[in-house]
Amino acid sequence: MDPISRRRLSCLGPRREVPEPWTVLVDLLDLLRHRLCMDLAWLGRVDGDLLVVQMASGDLGAFGLSLGSSVHRDQSLFSKVLCGDLPSLIPDVQAEPRISSLPVVAEFGIRSYAATPVTDAAGQVYGMVGCVGRQPCPSLRQRDAGFLRMLASFLTEFVIDLRRLWDERNAVWRQVREVLDAGGPRMAFQPVADLITGQTVGVEALARFPTGLPGPEELFADAAGAGLGRELELAAVRNALRVLPQLPPDVILSVNASPATVTSELIDLVVNTGTPQCVAVEITEREEICGDHEMLLAVDELRGRGTHIAVDDVGSCYSGLEELLKLRPEIIKIDCLIIRGIELDPARQIVASGLAKLAAEIGGHVVAEGIESTAELDAVVDARIGYGQGYLLGRPSTDINQACLGNRRPTATPTGERTHRTPARHGLRL
């Protein structure tokens, strides 16, 4: 593949969030990748001297790329195909003397390559579609190159939609870039309380963005689609970790990270604080965890440094118990969708109790998110859940000292009786 520019531009987000007609395009890339027996199929937008990866099927990371990555014309393969210096299909790169010596070929171990331009109805080049493989494909013939060109011709009818998407994602890229360049995002901190003592045992760091931008959840998803997801998450983690020296010794700081961020620079950020044991990493559910060997190794390394592992939003869209059993997190956070109205719904109570029992079996603890009423608090404690988070227990605050205090509410016993006990504080024992 081509040298990677640090510039990030527009692209689609994770496949599960892709709306119609984009699912059709991703399916076509799947078909192309399997037809050519290569590792990666991609659709890119040509922007000056750059080709920006807009869609993909296969493992972009294996080639050092992600959605939104751009590759430069200099010493690239795509530009040579675009100008007609190379054929659209190269079954064995090593057998092609015009490109076998390019540094990029050796760097990424490219052994097979295919690409052809995608034009609009007026014949103007919009971008390129192609495939790349780590093994030669000697069985490929000219009919396969014809299939590639046929697919590119079919994509012409989608160019108007692709340009609209390009403009939308480009606007997101600029918004996120402005936040990052200004040193953002700002962080707020919400307490996690021991539901029996009322004491704050942890604070979760939450990103906050300027007025006029989408909410945090939407903006993080949009940033991932624009190729800035990891950068935005890492910036939030850096800003959150700065408050560690201000925390009481028995309060844990919790930061959010997707699996892709966990496997990038997160370990170094946490370890370099000097107090990794005071940090919990909440793994968000924006990406699947199952089968991600690299992510599981990163989790093991963090845990070996004393960092606590949490799984966020369990009960909302979590893909299954297999991930919980593989990760064995010290903290399982039950999504607010389960907690909301739990006092009135036996099914929610059963789910909450079951997760509490599962956590106990794997040596972890449960935190109930979104507690907003005393009735919900009582029901959560009756489910044998020891820790909670929500507006009733403390709203997010940019003042870390205020966040560590929480609301100091009288809390519930498992029998529903109220108590005003406030014994000596203790950290979340993981």
From TrEMBL:
Pfam families: EAL, GAF
InterPro entries given in the database record: Cyclic-di-GMP_PDE-like, EAL_dom, EAL_sf, GAF, GAF-like_dom_sf
Biased composition (Basic residues): 421-430
Domain EAL as annotated: residue spans: 169-410
Residue ranges of the region described as Disordered: 407-430
Domain of life: Bacteria
Name of the protein described by the UniProt record: EAL domain-containing protein
